Amino acid sequence: MELKEILSGRIRDLSHRAWQSDVPAHTSFLSSSEQALFYEILRKEYHITSDSGLINGVPFLLYGGKTDSDRSAAFFLPSWQDPETFLQEERDNASYISSIHILPAASAGHETKNPTDYQESASLTEKRNEAPGKFSEALGHRDYLGAVMNLGIERNRIGDILTRGEEAFIFVLTEVAPTLCNELSRVRHTPVRCEIVPPSRCTLEPEYVQITGSVASERLDAVLAMAYRLSRGKAQELLSSDRVFVNGRTVHNCSYIPKPGERVSVRGLGKFIYEGAGGTSRKGRLFVSIKAFR
To answer: pTM of this prediction?
Structure first.
């Protein structure tokens, strides 16, 4: 069975469940390409062309722990809850998506805290100054992801992973958070300690690099060529090969004009947020600016 057929059935089943039981229902985390497929199904099967609306009578939204999450789950809401209320409650209560805060262990004998005690004791962030640790090696996204998956936790249960310096936050489905927090004691060769915190307690944000360049027009193929130092022809090949996504949707149209704030991702090359155009050169070319994710 193809992924599109599986996801279509999942959307139908979960929306019916939310309608019948009047409680939220959700998918696992969806990648950018799966989110693009999600929106394609909404457009073709439910005639929904925006980020809001009703699927089989229930409202929906994509949420991954932060407003700008790369990996998100699709939520189908009950009659008593709208998307805004859901987000306000979920960021603090972590009923469905939790964040795991990871720091280097202060000592080899350090015991991980009870993962349900984060509201009753000092956080790892506060304790960092009391007994600071130090990574013995530089750790990145792949190191954390590999360590978590080695615990037997499937990729679709894991959302975004944010790292900076010696700490990291990993977003996961709440159902697997206790297992991860109790069992993750080492990332590569470095002992670590973990704490479950609600998404609102995540203190890290994605890091960007500001890039400005000149283009003949704001067409997406021209912006891609500027962003990745490609020829216009190569940029057009990316668009025609299902590798370019704007806000999670696949885009094939080379003449598409991205709007300021839209997130563009290119499979195999990276992602950026388009900030818009401002000013022209002496030759009449537009200056455009993007924020590229590190």
So the answer is: 0.78
According to CATH, what is the number of the domain 208-293? 3.10.290.10
Which CATH architecture best describes the domain 3-93? 2-Layer Sandwich (3.30)
Output the DSSP codes for the chain: --HHHHHHHHHHHHHHHHHHH-S-EEEEEE-HHHHHHHHHHHHHHS---SS--EETTEEEEEESSSTT-SSEEEEE--TT--HHHHHHHHHHH-SSEEEEEEEE-SSTTPPPPPTT-TTTS--HHHHTTTS----SS---HHHHHHHHHTTT--GGGEEEEEEETTEEEEEEEGGGHHHHHHH--EETTEEEEEEEE-GGG------EEEEEEEESSS-HHHHHHHHHT--HHHHHHHHHTT-EEETTEE---TT--PPTT-EEEETTTEEEEEEEEEEE-TTSPEEEEEEEE-
CATH superfamily of 97-201: RRM (RNA recognition motif) domain (3.30.70.330)
pLDDT in tens for each of the 294 residues of the chain? 799 999 999 999 999 999 999 999 999 999 988 988 898 899 999 999 877 789 999 999 999 999 878 899 999 999 999 999 999 999 999 999 999 999 999 643 444 444 444 444 455 555 554 444 555 578 999 999 999 999 999 999 999 999 988 899 999 999 999 999 999 999 999 999 999 999 999 999 888 899 999 999 999 999 999 999 999 999 999 999 989 988 877 899 999 999 999 999 998 898 999 999 999 999 999 999 999 987
